[in-house]
Automatic annotation (TrEMBL):
Pfam families: HAMP, HATPase_c, HisKA. This is histidine kinase. It catalyses: ATP + protein L-histidine = ADP + protein N-phospho-L-histidine. It comes from Paenibacillus terrae. Keywords: ATP-binding, Cell membrane, Kinase, Membrane, Nucleotide-binding, Phosphoprotein, Transferase, Transmembrane, Transmembrane helix, Two-component regulatory system.
Length: 479
């Protein structure tokens, strides 16, 4: 017995459809075969009646009656020949059995109307199913009206039809058994993978993301299995990234907090000269700014994920924006003896965008370039207009990014080098900001040879209105 479920539904649907089709074919076949046998008998008897009707008007045998001549000459085996008058009374027949006194079946009525009548029914007395075919003889000598009536039993034909019916029903049953076996196999070929996928999915729902669907399934089931395996792999990877992020952010938050707490306690204890106090306050201020940057970066990412980030659009001169960014990161670059070089024409490069968010994008890119560059190196910033777009490139000759990490560097929480700190959100946020400005960000890198990040933004068209824009400070740059 097939258990309840999709397997049973498949089997029942296949079985029901095939059963109805076979039943329809069976009924049509029996109707056709019955009609064929009965029609063959009718045509055979009709041809004999036609011979009788052609011969009777020409009968001229002296010393012998027409009745006896017809009964002796035109009889058929296993068939009773009767001669009736116009009232249906039996004048004579070809058998030795007592004749019916009167015949009033429909074939006689049709014969009196001038047609060749036929009737199928049960014969009174014997109860056998018979076929009767009758025809009136015209132009008989003496104006006597005769009706020739042949009556043949259908029992042998019906037995033959019953045998054919049993045989065809047997074939139908055999076909249904084959359909049941095939549909059961088909159902199992679908249900077993589904059950396997369901069991593994249940394990995934319980948090076992190392579980995988095994088996080479085809078509939609194979696609479903691959999708679920990929989903589990991505969830496991995301969980690992989340754990790494929590560990990293905990370290990033603990370091400045430790410095702030240490210097606060030191300054609170008193007894230090003004120089040490100034140094301590600078460290507290620097670490506080660092904390604010980390928190703002996380808040920005949260807003972007919830689609709650609103852009204040206006006209931005990217050349002025890059010059301002170079001033912001100059101190950090100076500490590593890194030179910043801007390559652009002395003209305005105008785009329509949120200046604060674009500053956050390029500040993050420049900060990363400094962070991962060697000492005494040069970072090249370039601006150029290509078609309807303005491209900003930041190129360094630092440590570079491996091909494996390059494909994931824009993923959230991903960090190429955990030792350099950061949340791993910088490039993910920058990517989304660029996309919201209808732009593209392209990263090219070679391990040990440096990295080039190119941001392409739509240039401001002449017909677009120019709006004033104010930049604000306070955006984090840690990635």
């Amino acid at each position: 017995m097939i258990k309840k479920g999709i397997g049973r539904q498949i089997v029942l649907h296949y079985f029901f459809v095939v059963f109805l089709a076979l039943l329809l074919v069976e009924v049509i076949f029996m109707i056709v075969i019955r009609a064929y046998y009965y029609d063959t008998i009718y045509k055979h008897v009709e041809s004999r009646i036609q011979s009788v009707s052609e011969f009777a008007p020409k009968f001229k045998e002296p010393g012998q009656s027409l009745q006896s001549y017809l009964l002796n000459t035109f009889s058929l085996g296993d068939t009773e020949l009767q001669l009736l008058d116009e009232k249906g009374n039996v004048i004579d027949n070809s058998t030795n059995f007592a004749a019916e006194t009167s015949v009033q079946t429909s074939d006689v009525t049709q014969a009196l109307a001038g047609d060749t009548g036929s009737w199928i029914g049960k014969q009174p007395g014997t109860g056998q199913q018979v076929m009767a075919v009758s025809k009136k003889l015209d132009n008989i000598v003496g104006d006597q009206v005769y009706i020739v009536r042949y009556t043949t039993s259908l029992e042998k034909v019906n037995d033959k039809l019953f045998t054919i019916t049993l045989f065809s029903v047997g074939i139908m049953v055999a076909v249904l058994v084959i359909v049941f076996v095939v549909s059961t196999g088909l159902a199992n070929s679908i249900v077993r993978p589904i059950n396997n996928i369901r069991d593994v999915s249940a394990q995934m729902a319980q948090g076992r993301f190392d579980a995988r669907i095994k088996g080479d399934y085809r078509f939609e089931l194979g696609e479903l299995a691959s999708t679920l395996n990929y989903m589990a792999q991505e969830i496991a990877r995301t969980n690992q990234i989340k754990d790494d992020f929590i560990s990293s952010i905990s370290h990033e938050l603990r370091t400045p907090l430790t410095s702030i707490k240490g210097w606060s306690e030191t300054l609170n204890s008193g007894g230090y000269d003004p120089e040490e106090t100034r140094i301590g306050m600078q460290i507290i201020s620097k670490e506080t700014d660092r904390l604010i940057g980390l928190v703002e970066e996380i808040l920005d990412f949260s807003k972007l994920e919830q689609d709650a980030m609103k852009l204040v659009m206006g006209t931005v001169d990217l050349r002025e924006l890059l010059q301002e960014i170079m001033l912001n990161v100059w101190a950090k670059a100076e500490m590593k003896q890194i030179k910043l070089q801007l390559d652009s024409e002395e003209t305005a490069y105008l785009v329509h965008g949120d200046g604060n968010r674009l500053k956050q994008v390029f500040l993050n890119i420049a900060d990363n370039a400094i962070k991962f560059s060697h000492e005494n190196s040069i970072i090249f910033l370039s601006l150029q207009r290509i078609g309807d777009n303005i491209e900003v490139s930041v190129q360094d000759t630092g440590i570079g990014i491996s091909e494996e990490n390059l494909a994931r560097v824009r993923e959230r929480f991903f960090q190429v080098d955990h030792q350099n700190g950061g949340t791993g959100l910088g490039l993910a946020i920058s990517q989304q900001f660029v996309e919201r400005h209808q732009g593209q960000m392209l990263i090219k890198s070679e391990l040990g040879a440096g990295t080039t990040i190119t941001v392409s933004l739509p240039a401001l068209q002449d017909e677009q209105p120019i709006e004033p824009l104010q930049l604000t400070e306070g955006y984090g740059t840690e990635s």
